Amino acid sequence: MSPRVYTTRQEKGCTYTYGFRMPTVLMKRVQILKSGISKKQGVPLHHQLFMVLKDQILRGLYEPGAKIPNEEQLGELFNVSRITVRRAISDLHDQGLVIKRHGHGTFVGENIPAARPAATLNFIDLLRRQAHDTQVKVLSISIERPPALIALNLQLPSDRMTMHLVRLRFAEGVPVMLIDAWLPEEIGDGLNATNLCEKALHEILLERGVIFSRVVQEINAVSADPELANWLRVDVGSPLLQLTRLLYGADRRPLAYTTIHVSSDRSRFLMDIPVEVMNTFNAGQIAHDAHNVHLT
């Protein structure tokens, strides 16, 4: 079923429809985003709609105080039921992104966070800010033989033992980051739940005289498996961002292999790249794995 658009008039490149002012370019964007709502994705429809509307709000497509389309209108735009729309709006309300006014409709909240806060911290300062802004719970500490991929990245023999740390970070009581770290046993020696709750891992290593020389990071989109869903309190299959970080010491040997999972509706990764390296491989690159893709 194609969505109906109730148009009354056009003025200065804007289409007046549903009683709110929607620029023509925004209507096109809605149509594009609508195509991302699919029953084949394995993610609940209400969560897909929630993510689309949240993205539009955070990017300023709906300004603070603006009225958003009602349930019937959103249902027609995205070809979903009113129950699906109601659950998506409820999730937006729970996050403070919209306000419901009985008899008047739903409006964008007045205190919407900036879409792109400045990412001006260096790597060490970024880790300090991350530790300062969140609270940590140590889930496990163990000495064990690492999986083959991790041993390869840490440049360790397959029979070498490592320290394995799993931590969960919270912001205002909400789990926002699951951190899984592997370190050579001698680097992690002496780490325990007490000192990891008092200080961030990097701070402990710096105090021990460890010098960081470089970090290689890779960002992927993944779906939450049952274990990740349990710790991050999201639905199984929910979209997550995965950051894999390989940290090197002064001798150019790997010090730590860390995998971080965050919920894509709670967290974002920000990068600040100097203009002099923007067009070089120092700014990173996009790797493609299209050989496993089967188009339908």
Written account of the structure:
It is a single chain. With 296 residues, this protein is of the alpha+beta class. It has two domains: 7-108, Arc Repressor Mutant, subunit A (Orthogonal Bundle), CATH 1.10.10; 123-287, Chorismate lyase, CATH 3.40.1410. 29% of the residues lie in helices and 29% in strands. The strands form three sheets. It has a six-stranded antiparallel sheet. Strands 1-2-3 form a three-stranded antiparallel sheet. Strands 4-5 form a two-stranded antiparallel sheet. It starts with 6 loop residues before the first strand and ends in a 33-residue tail after the last strand. Mean pLDDT is 77; it is low at 1-35 and 116-124.
In short:
It is built from ten helices and eleven strands.
**Name of the level-1 CATH class of the largest domain:** Alpha Beta
Tell me the fraction of residues in β-strands, as a range.
25-35%
Number of strands: 11
What is the residue-averaged pLDDT? 77
Shape: elongated
Structural class: alpha+beta
**CATH fold node name of the largest domain:** Chorismate lyase
